[in-house]
Predict the structure.
Amino acid sequence: MKKLALSLAGAAFAAGALFAVPAAAQFAKVEDAIKYRKAAFTIMGANMGRLSAMARGDRPFDAAVAQAAARTVDMAGHLPWEAFVPNSAAGDTRLKPEGLANAAEVKAAADKMQAETAKLVTAAASLDTLRTQLGAVGASCKACHDKFRKD
Ligand code: ASC
C-alpha cells in the first residue's frame, strides 16, 4: 500500500514536471501553434457571439449564461499569445507578418484586451453594463484585427 502511494506520488510528480515544460516548447510544428491560437480565437468568437446576441436583443438576456460566456472570453483571451511563434504568419492563418514582427505591440494590445475582458465578467450581470463593456471589449479586439489580421 505504501509502495503504491509512493509510486502514485512519483507519477504525479512526473506529470507535474511534464506540464512545467516551457510554453515555447509545446508546439512540435508551426501548424500546431496556428491551430492552437485559432482554437482560442474560435472559442472567444463563439462566446462573444452569444453576448452580442443578448446585447442586440436577439437572444433573451440571462445573467448566468452571460457571465459564463464572459468568463470563457476572459479565459480564452489569455491563450493565443504563446502561439505567436516564428514563421506562423503563413499557411492556414489570417495573421499578417507584422503581427510577429511587432511582438511588443501585440503584447500591449493583448494586455489591453485582457483588462477589458476581466471587467466583462462583472459587467455581464446586467444588460446595460454588458452592452457598455461589450463595446469596450469589441473595440480592443478590433484594434488588433485592424493592424494584424488579414481582411
Ligand atoms: C466580436 C468578435 C470579434 C470582435 C470584433 C470587434 O464580437 O467576434 O472578433 O468582436 O468583431 O470589431
Observations:
- Residues 45, 48, 52, 138, 141-142 surround ascorbic acid (CB under 6 Å).
- The two ends are 61 Å apart (CA to CA).
- Residues 30-56 form the longest helix (27 residues).
- Helices lie at 2-19, 30-56, 63-76, 98-101, 103-123, 127-148.
